[in-house]
Design a protein that fits this description.
Blueprint lengths: L1 H33 L5 H16 L12 H17 L5 H52 L2 H19 L4 E4 L2 E4 L3 E4 L7 H17 L5 H33 L1 H9 L1 H21 L17
Antiparallel strand pairs: 1-2, 2-3
């Protein structure tokens, strides 16, 4: 009885302590997301999904307290996150926040709590770490980004060649005759868009899908192929701009309003495809996909 009475106060105190510790991480992450192409709109969509999923767990607070082994493991997760957040790397600090949330859930409810809120926790972990994975881990430790650069450059060059233009490709540089060219660098490879839409797709699967694993995988990879196609189309626009419209238009399309429009367009297309695939109406919470085909 004493534990039940003091538990809310202890929980609030622990949340305040963690909030103070991780407030700089959240502020720095928000600044990164708010930059052009930072994916703030995607984070908002994912947070809405998190709120929706948590609203379904109306009996969460009624679950019994975790046993001592679960409490010990949860405490170790929280303690480890407080050590990890001291490292001077925003991605690891954001990962520490996700680990702290996981530790709190296990500390309070154990395995039943994790089973109840694992989907929103997975979404929170993804939106906290996806930027670091796309901008840091994948380019540094895997060959995925160079492969994407060469694939996008080669695909765009092939399309231009089919249109009768004198195009050549040297590594990742797309050259159109003597008029100019486009360097498909790491930022133009599409890795950031692919990971961002990948998070949106997984969020949709965790939130509204009642389909089979095969259908969910088909949906996920189709989303990625759509993003890849849109990125190739963007490279074609940049190639046209650099040869026919001048440097100012190229810069606007590459880093100015064109970059923001491209990011928003990808999110809108992903949402429209999601709505069509799952036969889901965002204004009707009861409209979710069944196990059949679209």
């Amino acid at each position: 009885m004493l534990i039940r009475r003091t538990e809310p106060l202890l929980a609030i105190a622990l949340l305040l302590v963690l909030g103070i510790c991780f407030a700089p991480v959240l502020f720095a992450s928000f600044q990164a997301w708010s930059a052009a192409g930072g994916g703030l709109e995607n984070r908002v969509i994912c947070l809405v999904a998190v709120i929706f999923l948590m609203s379904q767990q109306k009996d969460l607070l009624k679950l019994p307290l975790a046993g001592l082994p679960a409490q010990g493991f949860g405490f170790l997760c929280v303690f480890g996150s407080l050590l990890l957040v001291q490292l001077p790397l925003l991605t690891l600090q954001a990962l520490a926040l996700a680990i702290a949330l996981f530790g709190l859930v296990v500390f309070r409810w154990g395995k039943p709590g994790w089973e109840a809120v694992k989907r929103p926790l997975i979404i929170v972990g993804m939106i906290l770490t996806v930027s670091g994975v796309a901008n840091g881990f994948l380019p540094r430790y895997t060959p995925i980004v160079p492969w994407l650069q060469q694939f996008v450059a080669g695909s765009a060059a092939y399309i231009l060649w089919l249109c009768g233009l004198p195009v050549t490709v040297q590594d990742t540089v797309l050259q159109i005759g003597n008029a100019g060219g486009v360097d498909v660098n790491a930022g133009c490879s599409g890795i950031h868009s692919l990971t961002e839409v990948g998070v949106l797709a997984i969020t949709a699967i965790l939130t509204i899908s009642q389909r089979s694993l095969k259908d969910n995988l088909r949906y996920f990879f189709t989303c990625e192929l759509i993003v890849l196609g849109l990125n190739i189309f963007r490279i074609l626009l940049l190639a046209y701009a650099t040869t026919s419209l001048g440097k100012e238009t190229f810069d606007a399309l590459h880093e100015g309003w064109g970059a923001s429009l491209y990011g928003n367009a990808i999110s809108i297309v992903a949402i429209l495809y999601t709505s069509s695939f799952f036969q889901w109406n965002p204004f009707d919470p009861q409209s979710a996909s069944d196990s059949g085909s679209p």
